[in-house]
Amino acid sequence: MSYKIFVDGQEGTTGLQINEYLAQRDDVEVLRIDADKRKDPAERKRLINASDITFLCLPDDAAREAVALADNPATCIIDASTAHRVHPGWVYGLPELERQQRERIRTSKRIANPGCHATAFILALRPLVASGLLPAGTQVAAHSITGYSGGGKKMIESYRNAQRIDAPRPYALALTHKHLPEMRAHTGLDIAPIFVPIVGPFYKGLAVTAYLHPGQFARKATPAEVQKILADYYAGEAFIRVHPCDLEAATDGGFFNVEASNDSNRVDLFVFGNEERMLVVSRLDNLGKGASGAAVQSMNIHLGIDETKGLV
Ligand SMILES: NC(=O)C1=CN([C@@H]2O[C@H](COP(=O)(O)OP(=O)(O)OC[C@H]3O[C@@H](n4cnc5c(N)ncnc54)[C@H](OP(=O)(O)O)[C@@H]3O)[C@@H](O)[C@H]2O)C=CC1
Ligand SMILES: CC(=O)N[C@@H](CCC(=O)OP(=O)(O)O)C(=O)O
Question: Which keywords does this Swiss-Prot/TrEMBL entry list (predicted)?
Fold first, then answer.
């Protein structure tokens, strides 16, 4: 069986990476759009409706437009943009979210691929809320350190061409980052976090660090107990690794490497600190589990094939 796949936005950062994954597979046929028709709605409409799966790797407005072009009920759309992540009728493409999520991804024709910071944040926090340890009313604070490819073609260009940008740059300082709605909706928290992303002068790799105040927990817990909640929640997950509370093993001489999950679809989770002050750190490749890898994982689940196919 060969599935027909169309990548709308095939020349963008996420689209190119999805095509790299698909190029290694013999069970998919990629429908290519001619370069001069990449933004032609009629040609995009034809290819979307000729496909079993269409990946939208587009800015939000273009993604909404693409959805309006889809009229074949058999076509499944996996949207990498922010447009539909808390939208009714769309399933959030994070299979590890909870037990029923894979079935939702399998049966829905509208799948919203999670944001990169949001994926890391939600996977770190959701088990703690679900276990009752972290009250839903807690306002969590977190920062994220990310590579510049997360900003797409324009940001990549600015790092490569402009005068050297060699210092990390915090942004979204109005504290209204576009991932807040999905972070709130999919962690089970009632309040959006105080969230500060920081972009650094490296291509890819991302780590969200969430600050936990054990005084706000519903019961006393050590870092090892928090680590166990995460490990139990993700037991058996192919792409989530919950590391033991071992600072020496988790760092290079005390320094945390935000690039160490790169070139994988893996999320690495760590708990640091003590009974008074705690951190949960969640690390991934923003172009892997933070974007294209996650999209391919959802495609595999939707098609009912091994979800790890083509992914490491
Ligand atoms: N980069 C990342 O790590 C992540 C990105 N995302 C999301 O995925 C989506 C794509 O992001 P990214 O790949 O980084 O963005 P890029 O800017 O790298 O690529 C977007 C592509 O879409 C094309 N495009 C723009 N408008 C249209 C249109 N109307 N019709 C057809 N094609 C169009 C652009 O064309 P042109 O080449 O001419 O500019 C470009 O090739 C975004 O919504 C982003 O928020 C999600 C998770 C992570
Ligand atoms: C470095 C950088 O700018 N990163 C992007 C997030 C990329 C991502 O996950 O994406 P979506 O655009 O799909 O939400 C940002 O923080 O806005």
Answer: Amino-acid biosynthesis, Arginine biosynthesis, Cytoplasm, NADP, Oxidoreductase
**Residue 159 C-alpha to ligand 1 middle, in angstroms?**
17
Ligand 1 binding pocket includes 39 (Cβ within 6 Å):
yes
Domain span at 43: 3-114+290-303
- Is the CB of 150 inside a 6 Å radius of any atom of ligand 1? yes
Residues 7-23 pLDDT 10s: 999 999 999 999 999 99
The bridge status of strand 278-284 relative to strand 267-273 is antiparallel
pLDDT at site 138: 98
CATH number for the domain spanning 12: value is 3.40.50.720
* Residue 308 domain flag: no
The identity of residue 23, as a single letter, is A
Please answer whether residues 196 and 174 qualify as being in contact, where contact means their C-beta atoms are separated by less than 8 angstroms.
no
Residues 180 and 256 in one domain: yes
Please say whether the beta carbons of 223 and 273 come within 8 A: yes
What ipTM, to 2 d.p.? Answer: 0.94
- The distance in angstroms from the start CA to the end CA of the chain is 23
Ligand 1 atom closest to Cα of residue 115: 47
Smallest CA separation from ligand 1 atom 45, residue: 81
Residues 260, 153 share a domain: yes
pTM above 0.90, yes or no: yes
The answer to whether the CB of 153 is under 6 A from ligand 1 is yes
Give the domain CATH number at 163: 3.30.360.10
Query: Do residues 129 and 265 share a domain?
Result: yes
The 8-class DSSP code of residue 295 comes to H
